[in-house]
Amino acid sequence: MATKKTAEVDYSMQEKIIALYELQKIDSRIDDINKVKGELPLEVQDLEDELAGLKTRIANINAEIEELKSLTNQRKGDVDKAKIQIANYKQQQDNVRNNREFDTLTKEIEYQELEIELAEKRLREYAAGMKAKKAELEETSAVVEERQKDLEAKTAELQSIEAETADQVAELQAKAEKAQSRIDERLLTAYGRIRRSMRNGLAVVTVQRDACGGCFNHIPPQRQAEIRQGKKIIVCEYCGRILVAE
Length: 246
Known about the structure:
Blueprint: E1 4-6, E2 9-11, H1 13-35, H2 40-93, H3 99-180, H4 185-197, E3 204-208, E4 211-212, H5 221-229, E5 242-244
Helix pairs in contact: 1-3, 2-3
């Protein structure tokens, strides 16, 4: 018989198969307990992800508002400078010596006035932008508040279920570890892979009424005899589950 020293004990293949079936029954009971949670874990995770995205969005909106404020202050400064320049140019016009100097100063005044018009146009755009951003911020904050309440409610419900089943799950996990100690790593890996590929989590099933307990396809008598002997791992040729004798 194929044996492997596990936890200082040599277990036969038949003992490993029995331990594997025990592990499956334990894992199935844990699955049943987890079904009570329903979609709550996924809903909690989705809400956490959505809240993280919304908070990032709020941070970005606040950054955009601060940028608009900075641009507003900059443009207001430009307007003040332009007005000072205009006042200086008008004062200089009172002391010009010829028409050429007067015309040059007039052009400078006109240029500064155009700069003021452009800056004021930008200021109106910034004001409209800030108004829109603040409205978006208020709307997003309201959504965050609503989602936060949903998250707190669902988290509390999930924690309540977990608290009620914690002792039972801990006991089952301890039994699972004991069963795993009698199974070699290669077989455990195969078991886990098959379990993940099955919707109902059944990787090990019994032969029932000459058929696979997982997919219900017929198992030939010779194959059943080999399964009962327990000398090697036998999988269903149809669904790939590990077969054990009832």
